[in-house]
Amino acid sequence: MDALTDAELTVLGLLAETPRHGYELERVIEERGVRSWTALGFSSIYYVVDRLAKRGLVEPAGPRGPGKSRVVYRPTPAGLDQCAAATREALARPAPVRSRVLVGMANSSGLPDAEVAAALTERRSHLRERLAEVRAARAAQEPLPTAARAVFDYSEALLAAEIAWTETTTAAYEQERSMDKYDVKQARKDLYAPSAKDFGIVDVPELRYLAVDGHGDPNTAPAYTQAVEALYATAYALKFASKTLGRDFTVGPLEGLWRADDPAVFLTRAKADWDWTMLVSLPEWITDIQVETAVAHAAKKQGNPALAALRVLTLHEGTSVQILHIGSYDDEAPVLDRLHNAYMPEHGLAFNGDHHEIYLSDPRRTDPSRLKTVLRQPVKPA
User: Where would I find the Transcription regulator PadR N-terminal domain in this sequence (predicted)?
Assistant: First the structure.
């Protein structure tokens, strides 16, 4: 036999107490505050009773009167048996949590923190109103038998717990809003917002990165995808851990160091011959121990082999030439040709480190013609 829904079990249990008609069921449901813990509207009471009757679990207690609303129903023997079995199961087995607020929290990353905090504040007000209603319903029925008292105790405890959770979560969002958030692109505009018109020279200080090394065409090599996923899994684990310590940061853009025995392969786009180190910048306060913990946390969630190869890289590029390239990655060749074969020779400069790219745009959401990439080359006097 099909399992009883919460609404069906509630109505069947009320009829097991004593035969009732629809208006009596509505009165008892209202008086006992049943709607605070189950979805059972007035219009659905007759629908539920009809379903129970069609399943042979309830029956009219006497001859039908002139109106459907005054038909008194009672459980059949089968209804009493199923009510008892379902009641035992409901008492013994915890139900899965299906609160709609969890769906909201899962989707809340798409909203500004201020809107999330405001919505949670409104939720707290509604919860307090509901708790006051439950307590009023309880007071109107005192003294209560043990089972009814337990129902009200449970309802009040759940509402109080929801209020406490809502207050704690709202406070966390309010604290986050007031927390200074470090963004490397804003803090170091000289490094992350160069001119797109011409090459410029910049002095790049010593910086720390999460890093994963690899080889091959980034468009086809599985190791490249694994490297990027490992970097971001670790970076976001660090971000969330840092927030609990009162310091927040925006995860930096993906960066890459590119090298080859012959730099000409960057002009010919012979990608299979490229060696690379993919990077994500680290705020200065993040320690190596925190990185190790974040990697371990990420490894528990995904079996990514690149996590084992992830390391902290300290990089001091010093004097470098850079420019902002706007366009597809494959259109970089003419810019690099000008850099290697015109700008550097004309200014008496030679290579002094790996070719460095910073990907300011998300290629999944940006038209290739509008991609923004910082192209940087460390140099020294020729």
Answer: 11-82
Residue 133 in domain: yes
Domain that residue 76 falls in: 6-176
Question: How far apart, in Å, are the Cα atoms of 27 and each of 21, 24, 45?
Answer: 10, 5, 11
pTM exceeds 0.70? no
Q: Which residue, 247, 370, 241, 238, is CA-closest to 310?
A: 238
Q: How far is residue 239's CA from residue 293's CA, in Å, rounded to a whole number?
A: 12
Q: Which residues of 191-225 are buried (b: 16+ CB within 10 A; e: fewer)?
A: bbebeeeebeebebeebbbbbbbbebebeebebbe
Q: Which residue has the tokens 């320690």?
A: 287
Cβ pair 31, 132 in contact under 8 A: no
Q: How far apart are alpha carbons 315 and 251 in whole angstroms?
A: 18
**Whether residue 157 sits in one domain with residue 84:** yes
Q: Is there a single domain that holds both residue 344 and residue 247?
A: yes
Flag residues of the chain having pLDDT under 70.
1, 42, 63-69, 178-179, 263-269
pLDDT tens digits along 77-129:
999 999 999 999 988 988 777 788 988 988 887 788 889 999 999 999 999 99
Give the end-to-end CA distance of the chain in Å, rounded to a whole number.
86
Neighbours of 269 (CB within 10 A): 13
* Pairing of β 248-249 and β 181-182: parallel
State the Cα–Cα distance between residues 232 and 140, nearest whole angstrom. 56
The C-alpha atoms of residue 240 and residue 176 are separated, in whole angstroms, by: 11
Is residue 208 in a domain?
Answer: yes
Instruction: Indicate if 250 and 375 belong to the same structural domain.
Output: yes
pLDDT of residue 260: 79
Q: How many domains does the chain have?
A: 2
With respect to residue 1, please indicate whether it lies within any of the assigned structural domains: no
pLDDT digits (tens, 9 = 90+) for 271-281: 777 899 999 99
Q: Where are the alpha helices (DSSP H) in the chain?
A: 6-17, 22-31, 42-54, 77-92, 100-107, 113-141, 146-178, 184-187, 189-192, 222-244, 265-268, 288-301, 306-309, 333-338, 344-346
**CATH number, domain containing residue 329:** 3.20.80.10
